[in-house]
Design a protein that fits this description.
Largest sheet: 2 strands, parallel
Distance between the termini: 15 Å
Strand content: 5-15%
Radius of gyration: 15 Å
Number of helices: 2
Strand order of the largest sheet: 1-2
Number of strands: 2
Number of domains: 1
Helix content: 40-55%
């Protein structure tokens, strides 16, 4: 069983040039890229078992409009994460 349950939301104003971009990219790395990496590395092992399961846990932040540019990046990364999880479910959920 693989459980993808990682996500963060940093309070960064994306319109502020003084912000450290590495923090913004770290949020995207964790919210979007991490589940892709985990599936990539564990899928060969999971495919060997008839009872293998991938559990993807995500928040509703992709669907919440917070009227604040501090959260736009989180919404985008969680939204793309949800798309990836849906594709994974459709392809391997047979």
């Amino acid at each position: 069983m693989l459980i993808n349950n990682a996500g963060i939301m940093l309070l960064l104003d994306t319109g502020n040039e003084a912000n450290d971009l590495t923090k913004q990219f770290a949020e995207i790395e964790i919210n979007f890229n991490s589940p892709i990496r985990l599936v990539h590395y564990f899928l060969p092992q999971l495919k060997k078992s008839k009872e293998a399961v991938i559990v993807n846990v995500s928040s509703g932040l992709a669907y919440v409009h917070l009227c604040n540019c501090q959260f736009d990046r989180t919404n985008d990364s969680k939204g793309t994460d949800n798309i990836f999880l849906s594709i994974t479910r459709n392809e391997w959920g047979k």
